[in-house]
Amino acid sequence: MRVIKNHLTIGLIYKDVWRLIPASVGTLVSLGYQLVNLYGFLPAIIITVFMAGIIAALLSLNLYLLSFFHLNFQLCVLIAAVIMVMFLLVWLLVNLYMNRRIKLRISKLSYSSRAALNILSLLLCNKIIPIKSAPRTQFWELHFKPTIAGQVQSLEAEELNAAIQADYKQLAAKLAPDTVLFGCTPGCLEKRMQMAGIKSTQFQIEKTIIPPEHAHVFGLKRSFFLHVLSFQPLLDEER
User: Fold this and answer.
1) Are 71 and 64 in contact (CB under 8 A)?
2) Residue 35's closest CA among 209, 182, 205, 188?
3) For residues 116 and 27, is the Cβ–Cβ distance under 8 A?
4) Which residue, 235, 239, 107, is CA-closest to 183?
5) Which residues pair with 143 in a beta bridge?
């Protein structure tokens, strides 16, 4: 009985549960980003909207059941829509706050989750990338800024390396040490990451199944690679 009482009092809600709000939206957005690279913009939008619709329907049904059928189902749908919009706004505010706080030169952060990383690694690399993480590890997806994405190939090597190094230092200074960053880019950034002072034990890179010709939208024809980065060794043992 004491354990049950503790679960209903001090263990009723832990503070980490609030991270699920932006993480749930971030998971869907992370999938949407890479579906664009894999299938194209229109199919990605359709799939993402379809997934959001399923989530909204399930949420509406749960609200209807939890009300013991006292609430009108249309009202449950409206409440579910409001909840999803609120979640989206929270995710946008978290991203806006962090990007303004860190002020990266060529990159931007998007709050995500380990679930998104696992799904993307399975979808794009046919494997789950093993990483070491703590219970409160945060996962962020890292993108080139839209104004930079199509111009990366035109940057001088020294300029790009300096920008990556500057962004990495900013991220390391402002984010928690066990934060995990991930992102998918056309072309492998391994050499540039090493030139930026990032140790090989701090990142993993896997080639994806995205066809190289899909990089034409960036003015390139290169294979896509999924990069996973942390400020600490990603695995307990040396790679």
Assistant:
1) yes
2) 209
3) yes
4) 107
5) 108
At 130-189, the pLDDT tens digits run 888 888 899 999 998 887 776 766 667 778 888 889 999 999 999 998 899 999 999 899
**How would DSSP label each residue in 61-117?**
HHHHHHTTT-S-HHHHHHHHHHHHHHHHHHHHHHHHHHHHHH--SSEEEEE--HHHH
User: For 24-45, what is each residue's pLDDT tens digit?
Assistant: 999 999 999 999 999 999 999 9
pTM for this prediction: 0.91
The residues, ordered by sequence, that sit 6+ positions from 131 with a Cβ below 8 Å of its Cβ are: 117, 180, 204, 228, 230, 234, 235
Q: At what angle do helices 114-125 and 20-39 cross, to 10 degrees?
A: 20
Contact present, 198 and 232 (Cβ < 8 Å): no
Burial class (CB in 10 A: 0-12, 13-18, 19+), 14: exposed
Amino acid at 72: N
Residue 185 phi, psi dihedral angles, 5° rounding: -135, 150
Whether 138 contacts 18, CB under 8 Å: no
Rounded Cα–Cα distance for residues 74 and 117 (Å): 35
